[in-house]
Amino acid sequence: MESNYQDRIPNNVGLGSNRTLQRALEHWQPEFLNWWHGLGPSDFNASSVYLRTAISVDTKGWATFDYVRMPDYRWGIFLAQQEDDRRVGFGDHFGQPVWQQVPGEHRSTLRRLIVTQGDTEPASVEQQRLLGHTAPSLYDLRNLFQVNVEEGRHLWAMVYLLHAYFGRDGREEAEELLERHSGDADKPRILSTFNEPISDWLSFYMFTYFTDRDGKFQLKSLAESSFDPLARTCKFMLTEEAHHMFVGDTGIGRVIKRTIEVMKELGTDDQIALRKAGVIDLPTIQKYLNFWFSSSLDLFGGDSSSNAASYFANGLKGRPDEIKYEDHIEAESSYTLELPDGKGGIREERIPMRNAVNEVVREAYVRDCEKGMARWNRHLEEAGYPHRMTLPSTRFRRTVGSWANVPTNPEGKPISAEEFNARQDEWLPTSDDRAYVHSVMRGVFERGKMAGWIAPPERGINTQPIDFEYIKFH
Ligand code: BYC
Ligand code: FE
Ligand code: FE
Predict the structure, then answer these.
(1) CA of 305, closest atom in ligand 1
(2) What is the assigned CATH class of domain 25-472?
(3) Of ligand 1's atoms, which has the minimum distance to the CA of residue 114?
(4) Ligand 1 and 121: CB distance under 6 A
């Protein structure tokens, strides 16, 4: 299908030839813009931002860079190219042709998966809406807004599916995606992490590293779906996701790098001295990491899940990179879970592999998270410091699954609730830590200047220099 960039809603789905759908989406568009103005980035809507925009899906030319006012961003509907003769890749229908329409018996389940995915996208924009005021540089401010407009586009992607394939129910769900709000007492966002405030840039980098990475794994799982339009939508979304995780990965790396520089200058790792010098000490960074990693682990769902088993059996949602697995049916296979034994120890239990899909995906996620650790720890090693950043155990501070509300230490050893309460200030950000981190967050809006708590990036965006005018204020 041709990309049509001139339409009011840029798309490669032939929207112009489906008047009913086009009209429905054109009706939703002002509601989206209304939401953007009310709950999107605060105050910077008149500024020109050096942004990339998706204009087509071919590998070379999908993005163009230009100055754009965010409300004028061309939020479009783009699906990856349809594969010829694509077949169901896993589960009970393995090998059958994929579906171009929603099978009646899977309608409500698919709708729920799409709504859950769609709900996270505007949620993250809401969570990040005030961060612009405290951006450490124009480069970072631009990256924040790039992430925000693309999460807005991801919402469009899910809303397109709801409108195009789910009739009136779908249209109602699309409205509700703009009615639930992050942290709202009455109508919160669906998944836990998306109701946590992101009120400082250290949290933003942790979120883009850990939570956008959940996005990567969930999108990869949905990209395997037998419902082909969903698979193609998610495949294209993944190309945008890489930059979001890059922002987190390099952001955390730059914070650590700056702290090391000041540790060297001062010849100390003393927290009080480092805080006096305006940088974020390593134990505080580790606490933020513990918080966002453990929260993001919950997003994979229960470790033993009959939902996950039926998604897999029915071909609705698979495993990332399904092709790498030997057995695509998994009807006979099993998986060993480590569970709390209720007496302060750990016991093993074998469960059917299909019920363990959430856990299998979570494991792959943890391995992916470790890559950043290795990069950040290289900075520490090269600087000659023994300190290392570590991922806490997947049992630590969980609120979903078998380990939910089982107190453990960061190494995953079950401990008493008293011990957890007594020691949690060593493991998770305290109100003092948060107050300190907030105190160093002050907007730096001069070209090429960088806040004192973070090192400059190694290079700019799209081969531009680091001191490029990434934002023009008006
Ligand atoms: N918070 O059977 P279970 C992204 C619910 S991030 C609250 O284990 P299942 C992005 C669960 O819904 C990717 N509730 O669940 C990143 C279920 O509810 P019901 C988002 C939770 O279904 C950054 C119940 O607990 N995409 O794109 O196997 C910026 C039983 O659980 C939570 C998706 O999530 C939680 N953390 O797995 C922007 C993909 N966890 O049925 C964007 C779509 C579980 O009892 N969603 N529950 O009412 C799914 O595939 C699944 O819904 C889940 C849960 C993987 C989330
Ligand atoms: Fe997204
Ligand atoms: Fe993202």
Answers:
(1) 2
(2) mainly alpha
(3) 43
(4) yes
Ligand whose nearest atom lies closest to the CA of 151: 2
pLDDT per residue over 344-399, tens digit each?
Answer: 999 999 999 999 999 999 999 999 999 999 999 999 999 999 999 999 999 999 99
Annotated domain spans of the chain: 25-472
Q: Note if the pTM is more than 0.90.
A: yes
User: What stretch of H or E contains 206?
Assistant: helix 201-206
How far apart, in whole angstroms, are the C-alpha atoms of residue 338 and residue 327?
Answer: 23
Pocket of ligand 1, candidates 218, 241, 351: which has the most ligand atoms within 8 Å of its Cβ, to mutate? Answer: 218
Q: Provide the token pair at 249.
A: 């990965």
pLDDT at 1: 61
Average of per-residue pLDDT across 453-473: 97
Closest ligand 1 atom to 401 CA: 8
Atom 54 of ligand 1 has which residue's CA nearest to it?
Answer: 301
What gap in Å lies between CA 263 and CA 257, rounded to an integer?
A: 10
- With a 6 Å cutoff on the Cβ, whether 310 touches ligand 1 is no
> Secondary structure of 399-424 in the HEC alphabet?
CCCCCCCCCECCCCCECCHHHHHHHH
**In angstroms, how far is CA 176 from the centroid of its own chain?**
21
